[in-house]
UniProtKB/TrEMBL annotation:
Source superkingdom: Bacteria
UniProt xrefs under InterPro entries: HAD-like_sf (IPR036412), HAD-SF_hydro_IA (IPR006439), HAD-SF_hydro_IA_YjjG/PynA (IPR011951), HAD_sf (IPR023214), PGP-like_dom2 (IPR023198), Pyrimidine_5'-ntase_YjjG (IPR052550)
Protein name as catalogued: YjjG family noncanonical pyrimidine nucleotidase
Record-level Gene Ontology MF annotations: 5'-nucleotidase activity
Pfam family, one: Hydrolase
Organism: Polaribacter cellanae
Amino acid sequence: MKIEHVFFDLDHTLWDFDKNSDLTFQKVFKLNNIQVNTTAFLEVYTPINLKYWKLYREEKVSKEKLRYGRLKETFDAVNYNISDAMIHKIAIEYIVHLADFNYVFDGTFELLNYLKEKYQLHIITNGFEEIQTKKMINSRINHYFDKIITSESVGVKKPNPRVFKYALETANADIEKSIMIGDNLEADVEGAINIVLKAIHCNFNNSSITNPKILTVTSILELKQYL
């Protein structure tokens, strides 16, 4: 395929969100003397967080409701008594400290060095605007990318077609010569395919994929086979 522009998702695709998030919770809990087993907390939190992000993509909850609700439900589920004021405090501090930890997936720098010689690279992310650029700077990957498009700057979230169309316009990219790469099947891959933008699914967790037509990789360096 003749490609000139490569659009990446950030969290769970290049930036190791789960690892960085786990370390952030450990730090925030220690700062606030929250006596809860972090491993047990995160086992409950992870699916709740995914649920809230889906609601957020669908415009069913606000950013503030996402930040509070995912914590409130988790603390309730692990039977930890905590005030609303402390939940709000933790929600804020979590965002403040999230970019303190900046692990990217193994092979990220090798891949980006390889791709930067051949393509214009861009980011399309649903993540919060105030933290995404900071994550990229602190993890030393920001200089690889020409355009960083956040859903908040567009006003809607992936998989809304407006996000992808805005990104293509901002990058001055021809849709036939562009490709989207991301971990989220609904937001990144199907969202792109719905506007006839080529896509590759980063299935790093080896989840079951029912659509055999979706191009999938299970490791980041496997992308070099297609680009």
